């Protein structure tokens, strides 16, 4: 940096600068004028107070960051006062004793704007704020701020570090992490970032492998070998868990990594030094459950297995359902009717697809043929959903040897009429049986046969036999009773179900609760033999409620842009399309920054939309697509009414909630927007 952004003339420690923000800002503007940073301190103070009037700049923790951009500022600068008498800058938790006035020139100085953004991020760190409060001199404050806005400065001034630095690096703990959530869109990467920043704070060498929807780069074997411990922050099964055989492990869901990253890093460091800590074993890559906080527990492991199955099932349901809906659009709903031919019972679509071609079109012409083919393909893909669900539940428990028995469980569930309930239970049984078989002591010569012959063979026999001979009929009865109960729902009971589904869809925005509601809806329409109006209404309620959060937040950023940071306003623009496409995760950046205001607001609108859908009797035959599958609804107009109502309620609710103060993160991000 060619010129320091802060100097001794612009630092005031333990001073009484007045009783209100105007007095403090004026004092700091005068200090900048004395340092030659502004030609008109009154103009600077006026600009900062105008900005203050638009939105208070107080942050939780006793900090305020008034700022302005004006032509009277000659170079981007910072004035700081540590007040002996606190002044109220509008923070939700009370007045501030640390005040920073950030002055930026009207044009140019992009490099300095970047440095100011660095300061904004530093103000969120408790250690940085504590150091400022404890600083005994102006020089110490300058050192802290300079290091925050220009980290390279300290490196340049440091004594020759080469010789002593190497040993220090060698002694730092080395921690690896795997993060994964069912959809691999948001929570996967939020957890990765939270752990990364926690590791930086703790001085730990850290690397993370995000097993999300984007391309995954697996750890190099040498990196794994050098690691002291590994963190599994996942809601689904870890891919290639066996790579970490022998490594101490801390395991949890992704939410704990987001909420308690520092604690997890500390636990991993401690586990790396503890010979008795739980370790990853070689029996299908499962971790020891001997002791310690790494243990996920039976309930946690079961939830992870179920979410793994759902994660792998969703693409089949989405692709199959959209193809079926396209078939309806092209050939009409009668394409699903049954037809008898010499080969047995088929629906019209399968009959037409098998007995016609582009050179031998059916009586309905080209559109009927294309619709029949689309419906037939979609039905085939949808028919795979149940086996895939069971197969990957089993995989999450017993790794690859559990896949075949899991698929067998799903196929038998379909055969006996147990459908998704049978797949859920059968997949868990298959995984448990395969894991038990893998742990049986066998001669060394037989170990190579275990994963490819012995486990799949006996696992399939046991789970298939149990479903056919013991569990099949009770589970089929339970499935039939559930479908009958749904079909009989009407009036108030249906509305209550819509409210519950709406609340679930908006509770964690793509997390396990959201996915549970989505699975409940897709399970109903995936089984063509049992699907009826009630199942189609549930699907409509789930989709409508899931579209509300992104659309509501996009609307809120338009109605009251001043309540949102510049990055949030940009996210709001993208949220229009995400919400219209039924991608609830578009609301996650807003919820992550301010969960206690955003999530309840979204749940209010989601509950209203779900209730209205059930009250209106809107039916939807496609499991995904948002506004792009209006053709698969019996009344897209009423669907739109419910969607608009929920969106408006959530937008108004979040705007109202935002009036009661802002989080430190929001204000810090807003400060970064000064550079825009």
From TrEMBL:
Transmembrane segments: 312-333, 369-395, 407-437, 449-471, 491-510, 540-562, 598-616, 628-656
UniProt entry keywords in alphabetical sequence: Cell membrane, Kinase, Membrane, Phosphoprotein, Phosphotransferase system, Sugar transport, Transferase, Transmembrane, Transmembrane helix, Transport
Subcellular location: Cell inner membrane
InterPro entries: Bacterial_PTS_Sugar_Transport (IPR050864), PTrfase/Anion_transptr (IPR016152), PTS_EIIA_type-2_dom (IPR002178), PTS_EIIB-like_sf (IPR036095), PTS_EIIB_2 (IPR013011), PTS_EIIB_2/3 (IPR003501), PTS_EIIC_2 (IPR013014), PTS_IIB_fruc (IPR003353)
Any Pfam family hit: PTS_IIB
Gene3D superfamilies named in the record: 3.40.50.2300, Mannitol-specific EII, Chain A (3.40.930.10)
Membrane topology, from the record: Multi-pass membrane protein
Species, as recorded: Gordonia westfalica
Protein name: PTS system D-fructose-specific IIA component (F1P-forming), Frc family /PTS system D-fructose-specific IIB component (F1P-forming), Frc family /PTS system D-fructose-specific IIC component (F1P-for...
Domain annotation PTS EIIA type-2: ranges: 4-148
Region (Disordered): 271-297
Transport in keyword set: yes
Domain of life: Bacteria
BP GO annotations: phosphoenolpyruvate-dependent sugar phosphotransferase system
Residue ranges of domain PTS EIIC type-2 in the record: 302-667
